[in-house]
Specification:
Elements lengths: L2 E6 L4 H13 L1 H19 L2 E14 L3 E12 L5 H8 L3 H4 L3 H11 L10 E5 L5 E5 L4 E4 L2 E4 L11 H23 L2
Antiparallel strand pairs: 1-3, 2-3, 4-5, 6-7
């Protein structure tokens, strides 16, 4: 399910409702979201028929941000292989961008750090071939007494660097809050 398009939550219900209206009307955030819905449709279309968008640009509220969320589904084609489907749809467009393969080449070329666990998947594979997994974003990794956290923002032609950096910080807000609460235990 594509999740893209982000505004900050304020903690004030009235302001958050106004921000949600701004989000749904924001051309840049909508362009980012629609691009990822199209990518999800394309990815699923490789192994499914009757691919459709069940939900388009639903506003969802999270602890520190407001997102646009869509749901894309399809009927598996005969002979579809679960592992191949996972390989063909991973990484999700929200982590790679589009066009996916060119975007991944650019990420590998220009990002100055290894993403490590960030953007990877966690889940399980049943004996019947079902896969249940989630993308690892806005999470901590504890390694050798160092706590790592990462978040990202979708970059499109209308992106403004300062706004994208603020989006990353907004997304990290929940992790910062969790760490603060954990330190008080």
């Amino acid at each position: 399910n594509p999740i893209a398009g982000t505004y900050k939550r304020t903690g004030n219900d009235e302001e958050d409702a106004l921000n949600a209206e701004k989000l749904i009307a924001d051309p840049k955030e909508n362009a980012e979201h629609v691009m990822l819905v199209d990518l999800a449709r394309n990815d699923l279309g490789r192994h499914c028929h009757n691919v459709k968008v069940d939900v388009l640009k639903e506003i969802q509220y999270f602890s520190h941000v407001i997102h646009l969320v869509s749901k894309v589904s399809g009927k598996l084609s005969a002979g579809a292989n679960t592992i191949e489907i996972l390989g063909d749809t991973f990484p999700a467009g929200t982590l790679s961008g589009a066009p996916k393969y060119k975007a991944m080449e650019l990420i590998n070329k220009y990002e100055n750090i290894n993403r490590s666990f960030y953007g990877g998947g966690i889940g399980f594979l049943n004996f019947n071939g079902d896969i249940v997994h989630a993308i690892i974003i806005r999470s901590f990794l504890s390694l050798d007494n160092v706590l790592y956290r990462q978040a990202g923002a979708g970059i499109v032609s209308a992106s403004v660097e300062e706004n994208e950096l603020q989006e990353v910080n907004n997304k990290l807000g929940a992790l910062k809050r969790a760490l603060t609460l954990a330190e008080q235990l």
